[in-house]
Write a structure and sequence with these properties.
The complex is a heterodimer of chains A (187) and B (316). By secondary structure, chain A is of the alpha/beta class. Helices cover 33% and strands 22% of the residues of chain A. Chain B is mainly α and 316 residues long. Classes of the chains: A alpha/beta (187), B mainly alpha (316). At the A-B interface, loops of A face helix 11 and helix 14 of B.
């Protein structure tokens, strides 16, 4: 490898951009997680119509996070944002037991989509600050995450409102992406 | 539950508001403190009046308050600076003190006292309105609270008088643009402020609100009415926090603005947003974020031009 190649490689590593998709039912806390990632005020959120997108810098990576509204009426548009996604983050309101099945079905449909095949999945079990929140392990079981094949996944308990657990989830994302790009290079 | 009460005297951000479009050399120099003092000294020498007097005598209402506020805020006298920060117990006495300090005599300036007082009341009024708005926003919607539920039902009855709600949890809420079967989770960070604004619009401008609702229900180019309304509450709240609405209130309301005056701004923005949305011919609701930003930009420009900044529904 020549010096020029080395420099070029260093440069391309530095400017690496990641496309992260943030999905989940309405009122799961996607926008709050987005704002929490960008270290912004989380107390004046409104329901998302359409989408929000923010760029966050994390350990040399530029993360472009797409937060798409979760209202039933908007869900058919989710597919338009799948292309070239590096990581899928799926947010669940751990207190919303009535809609656990609905959110499971939506996730199942996402994972079956060809455009998202092999994309690492991070599930945020959000709103853990509330008493009635189901523990992450229970949610993982409900979603049958253990049976997933051909995909790295992780479930992370968090409270976006309190800012707890969100960074841990992000760290997992960075680690996963780094090891994935390494294994690609080996091939 | 933690009570977040915003105490009176809390100041919103004060950002410089433009009073005209063009920028000239004098106004650039004026932003530099040492030049400002020099220019003021010269003018005072020539005209024999202080800056406060000149603003009160020459400026139109609205612009007058903006300029007075700026002048006091930058003053080297702590008496003036504190006077614009918080309302004193005895306002009349404080004004008399300012007049004594600046050598302004009642006999030769008969209107100074009243005009100055009116401007100060506008300034204090804006700050206490901010607290009122903020407290209402922080009151989260609670479905166990009977009063909250009543307001929610009221909204339904105002917008859909001919269609009774079949049950509290119902898909019908979607007809007026809530996200799911229970609106309680849709108010989020806007709390009761979001709901009260929607009710105010539906109650005071029933026909207009119904017209906007009808537009929003278009199968292709529609948008969820209530959710967009809550988003607009967020926008008005932002204009309140960054001080941009000062120009509007100073122009529109003589004296202290009330919550109704705040809600009038909301009505205007709902009505105008609907027109803006239709004119933009969006492909579908996914364009909302972009169109909202464009709309916000145009409103911002209006508010920054102090002389003409008025956001009110024209009912003629």
């Amino acid at each position: 490898m020549g010096l020029l190649d080395l420099l070029r490689k260093l440069k391309s590593d530095q400017n690496k951009e990641l496309r992260i998709l943030l999905l989940g039912l309405d009122n799961a806390g996607k926008t709050t997680i987005l704002k929490s990632l960008a270290s912004e005020e989380v107390t004046n959120i409104t329901p998302t119509q359409g989408f929000n997108v923010k760029s966050v810098n994390s350990s040399g990576f530029k993360l472009n996070v797409w937060d798409i509204g979760g209202q039933r009426r908007i869900r058919p548009y989710w597919r338009n944002y799948f292309e070239n996604s590096d990581v899928l983050i799926y947010v669940i309101d751990s207190t919303d037991r009535k809609r656990m099945e609905e959110t499971g079905l939506e996730l199942e449909e996402l994972l079956a989509d060809e455009k998202l095949s092999g994309v690492p999945l991070l599930v945020f079990a959000n709103k853990q600050d509330l008493l009635q929140a189901a523990p992450a392990s229970e949610i993982a079981e409900g979603l049958n995450l253990q049976t997933l094949r051909g995909r790295t996944w992780q479930i992370q308990a968090c409270s976006a409102l309190k800012g707890e657990g969100v960074q841990d989830g992000l760290e997992w994302v960075m680690k996963t992406v780094a090891s994935k790009s390494k294994s690609k290079k080996k091939k | 539950m933690v009570e977040h009460n915003v105490q009176p005297g809390h100041k919103t951000k004060r950002i410089p508001i433009k009073t005209r479009n063009d920028i000239d050399l004098i106004s650039v120099l004026y932003t530099i403190s040492i030049f400002r003092s020099f220019i003021k000294w010269i003018v005072r020498l020539v005209s024999g009046t202080c800056e406060l007097q000149r603003i009160v005598a020459k400026c139109k209402p609205g612009v007058r308050t903006v300029k007075l506020e700026e002048c006091m805020y930058r003053s080297r006298h702590s008496l003036l600076r504190t006077l614009c920060e918080a309302e004193p117990d005895d306002l009349d006495a404080s004004i008399k003190n300012v007049m004594a300090l600046k050598g302004i005599v009642d006999d030769t300036n008969p209107r100074f006292f009243d005009t100055f007082k009116c401007c100060l009341e506008q300034i204090y009024g804006f700050d206490s309105l901010y607290c009122q708005v903020e407290n209402l926003r922080m009151e989260a919607y609670d479905s166990k609270n009977k009063n909250h539920e009543e307001v929610l039902y009221k909204l339904w009855n105002l917008l859909q008088p001919d269609q009774p709600l079949e049950s509290r949890i119902s898909h019908q809420w979607g007809d007026i643009g809530f996200q799911g079967v229970d609106p309680k989770t849709d108010f989020r960070g806007m709390g009761m402020l979001g709901l009260q604004n929607l009710v105010y619009f539906a109650e005071k401008y029933t026909d207009l609100a119904k017209q906007v609702l009808l537009h929003s229900q278009h199968p292709q180019h529609g948008y969820p009415y209530a959710i967009v309304g809550i988003n607009i509450t967020n926008m008005v709240h932002e204009f309140m926090c960054n001080g941009l609405l000062r120009s509007h209130f100073y122009n529109r309301v003589e004296g202290r603005p009330s919550l109704d005056d705040f809600q009038e701004v909301f009505c205007y923005l709902c009505y105008e947003f609907d027109k803006f949305w239709i004119k933009s011919e969006p492909e579908n609701v996914m364009a909302f974020g972009r169109i909202r930003e464009e709309f916000k930009k145009t409103v911002k420009v209006m508010l920054q031009l102090v002389e003409s900044a008025v956001l009110a529904i024209d009912q003629t």
